[in-house]
């Protein structure tokens, strides 16, 4: 544009903050230095690294002939820039836009930080340990439809994150779906239970105990019959709304929990049509939890290990030994129906290339509710080039 006689103001700038810079600095330190490192000292070293990198990049840009106001760049670590940020942040605080809240976020155990969606990479080849489990009903709904099956009737759930079961607060159903009480009869001879698919029968299918009645979505009965390798006979059908407020026994802590009504995220495309709900470990679970006032339990620390709140699983990695320990516990307590590997799309930390988890933490949030309409209105008054 300058060569066409247009006046151009090009002020170069650098973002000098963020985890990538800190990680670069941390990787350059030996173990002794890391052990003695304080947050203030880390920030000082990160600032020094950022300034050195800015100078190197600026010299490279000059060398290839980029025209810019190199004498007055903006740096996010300059006192003037930080003061301007604090001024805006202060205005947001005074207007009530900034709040402290506990909600599930993408969390990287390897980086020990929350991640934004833009900081995630999705692997198409991630393999999770998926399970079908049964939660025993202790108190049916007032309709009386399940009375004849008591006390040996269970809700069947499917999950790819068994480690979240200690944080279970409810089982969600879709009121628009049809559900069925099925009776487990003869074991079928099929490839699905021969081990060819690395499946492992749980204690409910393999033990000699009396088989419980199981509740699943009606449309999934034939699919589950094939997958579990057991003849399933429908004894009664009813809409999902009938199950609301049924009480069941938590498979780990022994507390009574309720069946709740979820949203359209509950489908018959996979699973059982009933969703294990842990408000501290999933966005949809969290929203359902808010609706019913469920506790937001998340017994996992920054490094991805179970906390003391998880009882016997304390200290175990939720993505490793902790996950396996929960599955083993369910099997030993006759709650496991089937375990199998499940290949699916899964979020990874784009920096460490390690898998992430959903975890409820205390975070600072900026609400846009107070200025969303004003921002959208301002967009209409902007002249966009190209239009």
TrEMBL record:
Enzyme Commission number, as recorded: 6.1.1.5
Keywords, sorted A to Z: Aminoacyl-tRNA synthetase, ATP-binding, Ligase, Metal-binding, Nucleotide-binding, Protein biosynthesis, Zinc
The keyword Glycosyltransferase appears for this protein: no
Entry superkingdom: Eukaryota
GO biological process: isoleucyl-tRNA aminoacylation; mitochondrial translation
InterPro entries: aa-tRNA-synth_Ia, Ile-tRNA-ligase, Ile-tRNA_ligase, Rossmann-like_a/b/a_fold, Val/Leu/Ile-tRNA-synth_edit
Record-annotated Aminoacyl-tRNA synthetase class Ia domain positions: 4-386
Any single Pfam family the record assigns to this protein: tRNA-synt_1
Keyword match Protein biosynthesis: yes
GO cellular component: mitochondrion
Recorded GO MF terms: aminoacyl-tRNA deacylase activity; ATP binding; isoleucine-tRNA ligase activity; metal ion binding
PANTHER family from the UniProt entry: ISOLEUCINE--TRNA LIGASE, MITOCHONDRIAL, SOLEUCYL-TRNA SYNTHETASE
Name of this protein: isoleucine--tRNA ligase
Species: Aegilops tauschii subsp. strangulata
């Amino acid at each position: 544009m300058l060569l066409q006689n247009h006046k151009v103001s090009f002020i170069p700038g650098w973002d000098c903050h963020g985890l990538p810079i800190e990680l670069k600095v941390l990787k350059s330190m030996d173990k002794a230095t890391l052990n003695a490192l304080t947050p203030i000292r880390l920030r000082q070293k990160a600032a020094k690294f950022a300034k050195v990198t800015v100078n190197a990049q600026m010299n490279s840009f000059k060398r290839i002939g980029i025209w810019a106001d190199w004498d007055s760049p903006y740096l996010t670590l300059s006192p003037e820039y930080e003061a301007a940020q604090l001024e805006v942040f202060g205005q947001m605080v005074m207007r009530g836009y900034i709040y402290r809240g506990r909600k599930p976020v993408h969390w990287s155990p390897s980086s020990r930080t929350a991640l934004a969606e833009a900081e995630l990479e999705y692997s198409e080849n991630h393999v999770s340990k998926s399970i079908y489990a049964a939660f025993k009903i202790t108190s049916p709904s007032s309709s009386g439809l399940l009375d004849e099956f008591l006390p040996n009737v269970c809700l069947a759930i499917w999950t790819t994150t068994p480690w979240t079961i200690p944080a279970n607060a409810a089982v969600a159903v879709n009121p628009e779906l049809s559900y069925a009480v099925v009776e487990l009869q003869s074991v079928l001879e099929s490839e699905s239970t021969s081990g060819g698919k690395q499946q492992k029968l749980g204690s409910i299918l393999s033990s000699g105990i009396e088989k419980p009645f199981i509740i699943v979505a009606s449309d999934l009965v034939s699919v589950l019959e094939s997958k579990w390798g057991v003849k399933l006979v429908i004894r009664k059908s009813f809409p999902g709304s009938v199950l609301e407020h049924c009480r069941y026994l938590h498979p780990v802590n022994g507390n009574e929990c309720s069946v709740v009504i979820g949203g359209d995220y509950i489908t018959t495309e996979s699973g059982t049509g009933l969703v294990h709900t842990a408000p501290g470990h999933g966005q949809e679970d969290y929203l359902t939890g808010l609706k019913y006032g469920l506790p937001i339990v998340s017994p996992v620390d920054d490094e991805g290990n179970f906390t003391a709140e998880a009882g016997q699983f304390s200290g175990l990695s939720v993505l490793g030994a902790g996950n396996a320990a929960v599955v083993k516990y369910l099997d030993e307590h006759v709650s496991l129906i089937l375990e199998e590997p499940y290949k699916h799309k899964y979020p990874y930390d784009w920096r460490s290339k390690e898998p992430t988890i959903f975890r409820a933490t205390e975070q600072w949030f900026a609400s846009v509710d107070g200025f969303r309409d004003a921002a959208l209105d301002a967009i209409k008054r902007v002249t966009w080039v190209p239009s």
